[in-house]
Write a structure and sequence with these properties.
With 105 residues, the protein is mostly helical. The protein has four helices and no strands. Helix content is 70%, strand content 0%.
Length: 105
Amino acid sequence: MWHHLGPLIVGLPLLALVTPICFSLSLKLTVAAFVYLVAIVVLALMGGFVPVIALSVVAVGLLDYFFTEHLEDDVIVLLGVASIVGVSGAMVSPRSAHPVGDAPL
């Protein structure tokens, strides 16, 4: 359980740092979403599936609050970002990798 705290301890301040930078540069939703995606995929290399999902929920909340006018207008983009971030993070997670000899058939 405690090994999941590392990516969260690094990830939450990273998202808190990236958000005002993207907001002050007046980035569009799609560009900011890509920046969040890169940050979470890099953090996924540190931990497992649970922190990636938690960080992607936080990222979608931040994207909705800072980069959209209304949730109804951009719900498809936000759902797409959430699914892409979650799947990408789970795919690059060290726990999802199998050694060559132990790969399931």
